[in-house]
Amino acid sequence: MNGGLFTKQLLLISLMLFSVLGFAIAQTEPNPFDLQHRIPKNQKPLNSEEAAENNPFDIESRQVIDTPNIEPEAAKPPVVENPFDINRVKSSKTREEAKTKTITQTPPELEIIQKPKDTRNRLLFWPILIMMIILALLVTLYRSLIGKIYRAFSNENILKLLQREQGVFISIPYLFLYALFFVSAGIFVFQLAIYYNTIPFEFSNLMYCILAVTGFFLLKHLILKIIEIIFPIAKEIKQYSFTIIIFSIILGILLIPLNIFIAFTAESLTFTGIILAFLTIAAVYLFRSLRGIFIGSKFLAFHKFHFFMYLCAVEIAPVIILVKILMTGANVH
Question: For 83-110, how does the pLDDT look when each residue is reduced to its tens digit (9 = 90+)?
């Protein structure tokens, strides 16, 4: 075993010595690719200055050597004009008029349309961003509650179960989500009024729209509380009032992407976003009305007049007044 290892080491050392020796011999022999042997023996190789002067590929040196008696200006090659090049000469007056026209001419329609849109984007960016941050925090902290609210939206029995869990007072997560609906609905009303040019474009008007939506729903709850005190239907009124809160929370969450679409989309798609928002609101409102009719179905057969008065005074009249204000203008300053 030791003899084999010694043989391998000796062979490796021999190969290294032969490699070094071959490299040294190769350095002493002439390079077969060197072209210096083609130069005649009686001619010295040119240095760098002479090679630069006698470079056959130097165009300038060839022109100077071949035409020594020609003046430098006459030795220049003639300028060949492109026959397909059309030179349109304009007078100085025409050029000044065109320059002035390009500087001063701005499309007035573009200024009228884009400036309010850009301002609206800047104005609505922060309220929508804060609203989305609050929604993200609520979903993170109360994820199970959001799931229960969605199931209560689609199932009457789960809604009754949540109402019994709440008791007399509404818990804080419900209040935050309900307030989120006020902000989302107020932003939509503000954008709708701006689209129809019924109110001035100011931040204070946005606050007025949010306060108007908040006051409208608080007034509805106040009327329901008065009806609960006057008439012996306390259980059904509490259930309907809680139904309004659950459906409003769902509607507020649905209005957030629609508000973003209306605020930041192109002008040509703004009306499409408004139509989608109206369809969403109408669908939720009709579904809530059906649930309300189902809650008061046992009183509907004996108190048709009272139900009709409530429907006209609390459900239909405020919506008609709001639409009338938005369509005709309110002169809010």
Answer: 665 555 555 555 555 555 544 454 444 3
Tokens of 132: 């989305």
Domain residues of the chain, as ranges? 117-328
Q: Which residues contact 313 (CB under 8 A, 6 or more apart)?
A: 223
C-alpha pair distances (Å), 86 with each of 82, 83, 139: 9, 8, 69
In sequence order, the 6+-apart residues with CB closer than 8 A to the CB of 54 are: 46, 61
Identify which has the larger pLDDT, 125 or 61. 125
**Residue 260 and residue 270 in contact, taking contact as beta carbons nearer than 8 Å:** no
Does this model's pTM top 0.70? My answer is no
DSSP-H helix ranges across 42-171: 48-53, 59-66, 92-104, 108-141, 143-154, 156-166
What pLDDT digit, counting tens, does each position of 255-285 carry?
999 999 999 888 889 999 999 999 999 999 9
Dihedral sign of CA atoms 194, 129, 272, 115 in order: positive
**Using CA atoms, how far apart are residues 290 and 152, in angstroms rounded to an integer?**
14
